[in-house]
Amino acid sequence: MFLRPSCRMAGSVAGCFLCIYRLRKHHCVDVPHSVLQRALRQERATSRIFSFILLALRTIAHISDLHFGTVDPAVAEGLARDIDARTPSVVVASGDFTQRARVGQYQEAAAYLKKLPSPQIVVPGNHDIPLWNVIRRFFFPLTRYRRIINHDLRPSYRDDEVAIIGMNTARSFSWSWNGFWKDGRISEEQLLDIKLSMCDVPAAVFKIVVTHHPFIPPPGERMKGMVHGATRALAQLEECNVDLLLAGHLHRGYSGDVRTHYEAARRSILSVQASTATSTRRRGEPNAYNWITIDRDVLTIEVRAWNGGEFAAIDTTRYRKSEHVWHRE
Asked: Which CATH superfamily is domain 58-328 in?
Protein backbone atom coordinates (compact mmCIF):
# COMPACT_ATOMS: atom_id res chain seq x y z
CA MET A 1 0.00 0.00 0.00
CA PHE A 2 1.38 3.42 -0.99
CA LEU A 3 0.41 6.54 0.97
CA ARG A 4 0.80 9.92 -0.59
CA PRO A 5 3.18 12.43 1.08
CA SER A 6 0.33 14.41 2.63
CA CYS A 7 -0.67 11.29 4.53
CA ARG A 8 2.85 10.26 5.51
CA MET A 9 3.42 13.77 6.87
CA ALA A 10 0.20 13.88 8.92
CA GLY A 11 0.89 15.28 12.39
CA SER A 12 -0.86 12.50 14.29
CA VAL A 13 -2.22 8.98 14.01
CA ALA A 14 -5.71 10.46 13.85
CA GLY A 15 -4.65 12.71 11.02
CA CYS A 16 -3.17 9.80 9.10
CA PHE A 17 -6.29 7.69 9.55
CA LEU A 18 -8.40 10.59 8.35
CA CYS A 19 -6.14 10.98 5.33
CA ILE A 20 -6.42 7.27 4.51
CA TYR A 21 -10.19 7.41 4.73
CA ARG A 22 -10.46 10.39 2.43
CA LEU A 23 -7.99 8.94 -0.09
CA ARG A 24 -9.95 5.67 -0.27
CA LYS A 25 -13.20 7.57 -0.50
CA HIS A 26 -12.00 9.43 -3.57
CA HIS A 27 -10.39 6.33 -5.13
CA CYS A 28 -6.85 7.72 -4.75
CA VAL A 29 -5.39 4.64 -3.07
CA ASP A 30 -6.26 1.03 -2.45
CA VAL A 31 -6.70 0.62 1.33
CA PRO A 32 -7.75 -2.61 3.10
CA HIS A 33 -11.31 -2.55 4.41
CA SER A 34 -10.23 -3.02 8.07
CA VAL A 35 -7.95 0.01 7.92
CA LEU A 36 -10.70 2.03 6.27
CA GLN A 37 -13.18 1.17 9.02
CA ARG A 38 -10.67 2.17 11.69
CA ALA A 39 -10.07 5.48 9.94
CA LEU A 40 -13.81 6.11 9.71
CA ARG A 41 -14.28 5.46 13.44
CA GLN A 42 -11.38 7.80 14.19
CA GLU A 43 -12.87 10.57 12.06
CA ARG A 44 -16.25 10.28 13.77
CA ALA A 45 -14.64 10.39 17.23
CA THR A 46 -12.55 13.41 16.26
CA SER A 47 -15.62 15.19 14.88
CA ARG A 48 -17.48 14.63 18.16
CA ILE A 49 -14.57 16.04 20.16
CA PHE A 50 -14.30 19.16 18.00
CA SER A 51 -18.07 19.65 18.05
CA PHE A 52 -18.03 19.56 21.86
CA ILE A 53 -15.22 22.11 22.02
CA LEU A 54 -16.92 24.47 19.57
CA LEU A 55 -20.23 24.22 21.40
CA ALA A 56 -18.56 25.14 24.70
CA LEU A 57 -16.86 28.21 23.21
CA ARG A 58 -18.69 31.44 22.52
CA THR A 59 -17.32 34.28 20.43
CA ILE A 60 -18.60 37.85 20.42
CA ALA A 61 -17.84 40.54 17.86
CA HIS A 62 -18.13 43.66 20.00
CA ILE A 63 -18.46 46.79 17.88
CA SER A 64 -19.36 50.30 18.98
CA ASP A 65 -19.76 53.91 17.90
CA LEU A 66 -20.28 53.38 14.17
CA HIS A 67 -21.46 57.00 13.79
CA PHE A 68 -23.05 56.89 10.34
CA GLY A 69 -22.66 60.41 9.05
CA THR A 70 -18.93 60.38 9.82
CA VAL A 71 -18.13 56.85 8.61
CA ASP A 72 -15.05 55.94 6.59
CA PRO A 73 -16.57 53.74 3.82
CA ALA A 74 -13.43 51.63 3.31
CA VAL A 75 -13.22 50.90 7.03
CA ALA A 76 -16.92 50.00 7.20
CA GLU A 77 -16.61 47.53 4.32
CA GLY A 78 -13.46 46.05 5.84
CA LEU A 79 -15.19 45.58 9.17
CA ALA A 80 -18.15 43.79 7.60
CA ARG A 81 -15.82 41.46 5.68
CA ASP A 82 -13.74 40.67 8.75
CA ILE A 83 -16.68 39.90 11.02
CA ASP A 84 -18.49 37.87 8.38
CA ALA A 85 -15.39 35.76 7.75
CA ARG A 86 -14.96 35.01 11.45
CA THR A 87 -18.61 33.98 12.08
CA PRO A 88 -19.11 35.06 15.71
CA SER A 89 -21.69 33.46 17.98
CA VAL A 90 -23.20 36.92 18.60
CA VAL A 91 -22.62 40.45 17.32
CA VAL A 92 -22.91 43.12 20.02
CA ALA A 93 -23.21 46.79 18.96
CA SER A 94 -23.01 49.12 21.96
CA GLY A 95 -24.55 52.30 20.63
CA ASP A 96 -24.02 55.49 18.62
CA PHE A 97 -25.15 54.18 15.24
CA THR A 98 -25.53 57.74 13.93
CA GLN A 99 -23.81 61.08 14.27
CA ARG A 100 -26.93 63.24 14.58
CA ALA A 101 -29.88 60.83 14.68
CA ARG A 102 -31.06 61.80 11.19
CA VAL A 103 -33.29 59.50 9.14
CA GLY A 104 -30.72 59.00 6.38
CA GLN A 105 -28.01 58.12 8.90
CA TYR A 106 -30.31 55.62 10.57
CA GLN A 107 -31.16 54.05 7.23
CA GLU A 108 -27.48 53.67 6.40
CA ALA A 109 -26.85 52.08 9.78
CA ALA A 110 -29.77 49.68 9.40
CA ALA A 111 -28.58 48.59 5.93
CA TYR A 112 -25.11 48.05 7.35
CA LEU A 113 -26.33 45.90 10.23
CA LYS A 114 -27.98 43.61 7.69
CA LYS A 115 -24.52 42.86 6.29
CA LEU A 116 -23.37 41.51 9.66
CA PRO A 117 -24.08 38.03 11.03
CA SER A 118 -26.94 37.27 13.41
CA PRO A 119 -27.96 37.09 16.19
CA GLN A 120 -27.31 40.70 17.14
CA ILE A 121 -27.68 42.62 20.41
CA VAL A 122 -27.89 46.37 19.78
CA VAL A 123 -28.47 49.31 22.13
CA PRO A 124 -28.67 53.05 21.37
CA GLY A 125 -26.14 55.70 22.36
CA ASN A 126 -26.34 59.41 23.14
CA HIS A 127 -25.73 60.33 19.48
CA ASP A 128 -28.83 58.36 18.55
CA ILE A 129 -30.94 61.05 20.25
CA PRO A 130 -31.45 64.28 18.22
CA LEU A 131 -29.24 67.09 19.52
CA TRP A 132 -30.69 70.31 18.07
CA ASN A 133 -34.31 69.27 17.48
CA VAL A 134 -35.62 70.09 20.97
CA ILE A 135 -39.10 68.66 20.39
CA ARG A 136 -37.75 65.31 19.28
CA ARG A 137 -34.99 65.29 21.86
CA PHE A 138 -37.32 65.61 24.85
CA PHE A 139 -40.58 64.10 23.62
CA PHE A 140 -39.57 61.53 20.97
CA PRO A 141 -35.87 60.87 21.67
CA LEU A 142 -35.57 57.36 20.25
CA THR A 143 -38.57 57.16 17.89
CA ARG A 144 -36.35 56.94 14.81
CA TYR A 145 -34.04 54.40 16.44
CA ARG A 146 -36.97 52.16 17.37
CA ARG A 147 -38.57 52.50 13.95
CA ILE A 148 -35.45 51.92 11.85
CA ILE A 149 -32.88 50.03 13.96
CA ASN A 150 -34.66 48.03 16.66
CA HIS A 151 -37.95 48.56 18.46
CA ASP A 152 -36.70 46.66 21.50
CA LEU A 153 -34.73 48.82 23.96
CA ARG A 154 -34.08 45.77 26.15
CA PRO A 155 -32.81 43.16 23.69
CA SER A 156 -31.69 39.81 25.00
CA TYR A 157 -30.07 36.59 23.84
CA ARG A 158 -29.54 33.28 25.61
CA ASP A 159 -28.21 29.84 24.81
CA ASP A 160 -26.67 27.06 26.92
CA GLU A 161 -23.45 28.99 27.52
CA VAL A 162 -24.21 32.73 27.60
CA ALA A 163 -27.02 35.11 28.53
CA ILE A 164 -26.88 38.69 27.21
CA ILE A 165 -29.15 41.64 27.93
CA GLY A 166 -28.90 45.14 26.49
CA MET A 167 -29.80 48.28 28.46
CA ASN A 168 -30.53 51.70 26.97
CA THR A 169 -28.49 54.27 28.94
CA ALA A 170 -28.99 57.16 26.48
CA ARG A 171 -30.96 60.09 27.95
CA SER A 172 -32.30 63.40 26.68
CA PHE A 173 -30.90 65.16 29.74
CA SER A 174 -28.66 64.21 32.67
CA TRP A 175 -27.97 66.08 35.88
CA SER A 176 -24.30 66.75 35.27
CA TRP A 177 -22.57 70.07 34.60
CA ASN A 178 -20.11 68.90 31.95
CA GLY A 179 -22.15 66.27 30.21
CA PHE A 180 -25.86 66.99 30.62
CA TRP A 181 -26.39 66.46 26.87
CA LYS A 182 -24.37 63.24 26.53
CA ASP A 183 -24.12 61.39 29.85
CA GLY A 184 -26.16 58.24 30.45
CA ARG A 185 -28.05 56.62 33.29
CA ILE A 186 -29.48 53.29 34.44
CA SER A 187 -32.93 53.57 35.99
CA GLU A 188 -34.59 51.61 38.78
CA GLU A 189 -36.95 50.09 36.21
CA GLN A 190 -33.97 48.82 34.21
CA LEU A 191 -32.43 47.31 37.34
CA LEU A 192 -35.67 45.42 37.84
CA ASP A 193 -35.41 44.18 34.25
CA ILE A 194 -31.91 42.90 34.95
CA LYS A 195 -33.12 41.16 38.08
CA LEU A 196 -36.03 39.47 36.31
CA SER A 197 -33.92 38.51 33.28
CA MET A 198 -30.66 37.44 34.90
CA CYS A 199 -31.08 36.37 38.51
CA ASP A 200 -32.89 33.12 37.67
CA VAL A 201 -30.34 32.14 35.01
CA PRO A 202 -28.11 29.30 36.31
CA ALA A 203 -24.73 30.42 37.63
CA ALA A 204 -22.98 28.16 35.10
CA VAL A 205 -24.23 30.41 32.28
CA PHE A 206 -21.91 33.34 31.47
CA LYS A 207 -23.90 36.56 31.98
CA ILE A 208 -23.31 39.77 30.04
CA VAL A 209 -24.87 43.24 30.22
CA VAL A 210 -24.47 45.68 27.31
CA THR A 211 -24.73 49.47 27.69
CA HIS A 212 -23.47 52.43 25.69
CA HIS A 213 -22.02 54.35 28.62
CA PRO A 214 -19.07 52.84 30.49
CA PHE A 215 -18.68 51.72 34.09
CA ILE A 216 -14.94 52.33 34.35
CA PRO A 217 -12.68 55.07 32.92
CA PRO A 218 -9.63 54.64 30.70
CA PRO A 219 -6.47 53.68 32.60
CA GLY A 220 -5.11 56.58 34.63
CA GLU A 221 -8.09 58.88 34.02
CA ARG A 222 -10.83 60.26 36.28
CA MET A 223 -14.37 58.88 36.54
CA LYS A 224 -15.71 61.26 33.89
CA GLY A 225 -18.53 60.27 31.56
CA MET A 226 -19.35 57.09 33.48
CA VAL A 227 -22.92 55.84 33.50
CA HIS A 228 -24.97 57.49 36.26
CA GLY A 229 -26.29 55.07 38.86
CA ALA A 230 -23.35 52.70 38.39
CA THR A 231 -22.88 51.97 42.10
CA ARG A 232 -26.54 51.04 42.53
CA ALA A 233 -26.49 49.04 39.31
CA LEU A 234 -23.43 47.05 40.36
CA ALA A 235 -25.23 45.91 43.51
CA GLN A 236 -27.96 44.40 41.32
CA LEU A 237 -25.43 42.93 38.88
CA GLU A 238 -23.66 41.26 41.79
CA GLU A 239 -26.91 39.74 43.04
CA CYS A 240 -27.50 38.24 39.59
CA ASN A 241 -23.90 36.99 39.21
CA VAL A 242 -23.17 39.03 36.08
CA ASP A 243 -19.70 38.32 34.67
CA LEU A 244 -19.09 40.90 31.94
CA LEU A 245 -20.05 44.46 30.96
CA LEU A 246 -19.67 45.69 27.36
CA ALA A 247 -19.80 49.36 26.39
CA GLY A 248 -18.39 52.12 24.18
CA HIS A 249 -18.98 55.90 24.16
CA LEU A 250 -15.38 57.09 24.76
CA HIS A 251 -13.87 55.78 21.49
CA ARG A 252 -11.20 54.09 23.59
CA GLY A 253 -10.51 50.38 23.95
CA TYR A 254 -9.56 49.01 27.38
CA SER A 255 -10.72 46.59 30.08
CA GLY A 256 -10.58 46.02 33.83
CA ASP A 257 -12.27 44.82 37.00
CA VAL A 258 -15.01 47.15 38.29
CA ARG A 259 -13.79 46.65 41.86
CA THR A 260 -10.75 48.84 41.15
CA HIS A 261 -13.09 51.85 40.83
CA TYR A 262 -15.98 51.05 43.18
CA GLU A 263 -15.09 50.42 46.81
CA ALA A 264 -18.50 48.95 47.59
CA ALA A 265 -18.29 46.38 44.78
CA ARG A 266 -17.81 42.85 46.06
CA ARG A 267 -18.09 40.72 42.93
CA SER A 268 -15.31 40.62 40.35
CA ILE A 269 -16.97 41.81 37.11
CA LEU A 270 -15.03 42.60 33.95
CA SER A 271 -15.79 45.79 32.07
CA VAL A 272 -14.68 45.84 28.41
CA GLN A 273 -14.70 48.97 26.26
CA ALA A 274 -14.60 49.14 22.48
CA SER A 275 -13.12 51.90 20.34
CA THR A 276 -15.03 53.43 17.44
CA ALA A 277 -15.33 50.78 14.77
CA THR A 278 -15.89 52.88 11.66
CA SER A 279 -16.01 56.62 12.44
CA THR A 280 -13.45 59.22 11.43
CA ARG A 281 -13.89 60.70 14.94
CA ARG A 282 -11.01 58.72 16.42
CA ARG A 283 -9.37 59.67 19.70
CA GLY A 284 -5.78 58.65 19.43
CA GLU A 285 -6.59 55.06 18.46
CA PRO A 286 -7.25 53.33 15.14
CA ASN A 287 -10.70 52.10 14.21
CA ALA A 288 -11.08 48.81 16.04
CA TYR A 289 -13.43 46.27 17.55
CA ASN A 290 -13.17 43.51 20.15
CA TRP A 291 -13.22 39.83 19.30
CA ILE A 292 -14.13 38.20 22.62
CA THR A 293 -13.80 34.47 23.24
CA ILE A 294 -15.52 32.96 26.28
CA ASP A 295 -14.31 29.57 27.43
CA ARG A 296 -15.99 29.13 30.79
CA ASP A 297 -13.53 30.70 33.27
CA VAL A 298 -11.21 32.10 30.61
CA LEU A 299 -12.04 35.26 28.66
CA THR A 300 -9.85 36.47 25.80
CA ILE A 301 -10.13 39.92 24.23
CA GLU A 302 -8.50 40.28 20.83
CA VAL A 303 -8.48 43.86 19.59
CA ARG A 304 -8.72 43.90 15.81
CA ALA A 305 -7.83 47.25 14.22
CA TRP A 306 -7.89 48.78 10.75
CA ASN A 307 -4.38 48.93 9.26
CA GLY A 308 -5.31 50.72 6.06
CA GLY A 309 -6.23 47.61 4.12
CA GLU A 310 -7.92 45.22 6.53
CA PHE A 311 -8.73 44.52 10.16
CA ALA A 312 -6.03 42.55 11.96
CA ALA A 313 -5.17 41.67 15.55
CA ILE A 314 -3.03 44.29 17.34
CA ASP A 315 -3.44 43.24 20.97
CA THR A 316 -4.70 40.29 23.00
CA THR A 317 -5.66 40.32 26.68
CA ARG A 318 -6.59 37.19 28.58
CA TYR A 319 -8.38 36.95 31.92
CA ARG A 320 -8.77 33.81 34.00
CA LYS A 321 -11.24 33.45 36.85
CA SER A 322 -9.83 31.78 39.95
CA GLU A 323 -11.76 31.60 43.22
CA HIS A 324 -14.42 33.95 41.77
CA VAL A 325 -11.88 36.66 40.87
CA TRP A 326 -10.76 37.68 37.37
CA HIS A 327 -6.97 37.76 37.02
CA ARG A 328 -5.19 39.24 34.02
CA GLU A 329 -2.61 36.83 32.61
From this structure: Metallo-dependent phosphatases (3.60.21.10)
